[in-house]
Structures are given as C-alpha cells and as structure tokens.
Amino acid sequence: MRTLTAVAFLGLLVVPTGAHAQSPVEGAVETVEGSVDGEFAAFDEALAGDLSELALGHVEAKKTEGLVLLIWGLASFGAGIAIAAAGHEDDGWFYGGITTASWGAINAGLSLLLLDLGGTAEAHARQTRELRGRALFARRDELIAGQQGSATLFALNTGLDVAYIVAGALLYGFGAAESPEDSAMVGVGGAILAQGAALLVFDLFNWIGAASRGSALREAGP
Predict the structure, then answer these.
(1) Which residues lie closer than 8 Å to 169 by C-beta, 6 or more apart?
(2) Residue 108 belongs to what domain range?
(3) Which pLDDT score, from 0 to 100, does residue 22 have?
C-alpha cells in the first residue's frame, strides 16, 4: 500500500514534456519580443503617417507651382497678343508682344506637367500610409530623391533665368544704342528681360521650397 502511494505521488510530480508549464525566463523573453515588435509597429505606423502627409504636401505644392505658372503663361499670352495687335504698326511693340505671347504659351503648356490632372501622384501619396518595413524606407528614399531632383531642376532654371535677363538686357541696350531706327530688337529684348525676371522669382522660390521639403523628409518619423 505504501509502495502504491509513493508511485502515485511521484507520478504527479512528473509532467509530460509537451505540456510543461512555461518557465519564467521563457515568459520574459516572449514579453520582451512582444514589446520590441510593438515598438517597431508603432514606429512604422508613425513614419508612414508622416511620410504620407509630407507626400500629399508635395503634391499640393507642385499643383500650386503649376497653377501659378499656368496663370502667368495665360496672362503673358493674352497680354502679348493684345500688345502685338494694338501696336502692329510699331516693330518694337509688335515683336515684343509676339515674344511675350510665345513665352506665355510655352509656360502654360509646361504647367500642365505639374498639375497632376489624372490624380496619380495624389493616389500614390495616399498609399504611403499603408507601407511598412523596408517598403516604407524605400518610399522615403524615393521621396527624398524626388525633392532633390526638383531642387536641382529649379536651381538650373534659376541659372537660365539669369541668362535670359542678361540676354534680354543686352538686346534691349544694343537695339536702343546701335539701331534706334530698328525697334524690333528693343521690343524682343524687353520682353525676354521681363519674362526672365518673372521666372527667376518663380524658380528661386520653388528651389528653396523643394530643398526645405527634402530636409523635412529626412527628419520624418517619431
């Protein structure tokens, strides 16, 4: 009887391997792992939200750039046609008006590339909120590269604008000094100078904006 009781007691002490209780160390490891996973998930979610908002801000900034360029282009085109029509008997006014209208048409056409008429850029920006892990960091790199590219393009355009201003001023000055009887050069030079000055303000402002948005992207996240 005593032997059976001892065997039964020992049997209660022996727990099958597949059902043994979790040790304190294992429980602590799982707790730490769960905490780390939760922190990574929270970081990804916060970064995705920030990047999505910044990306949408970039889209809106580009639309604003396009709208400003479109308005300036249409205004230049309309004013140029009106000047050429009203001053068609004077070469200076006529060719100055034609030059202004030509630049206006080109700028209006280029503005369409910035307006996101199909909504593709906005939809892509909104999808950023759903990204996680490596895809999220790849998206941030893509956005940074995009703003760096925009800043570089605006910087190059700023240099061209300065060249337009110089060329326009030289044409205007040469025409006024050397060929007073031929006012066409004066009109063309004045028109190029005015367009170059306006575009200089546009490109310089947007160059600074693109560089600033690139910096904000590098600092995105919690």
Answers:
(1) 189, 193
(2) 43-218
(3) 55
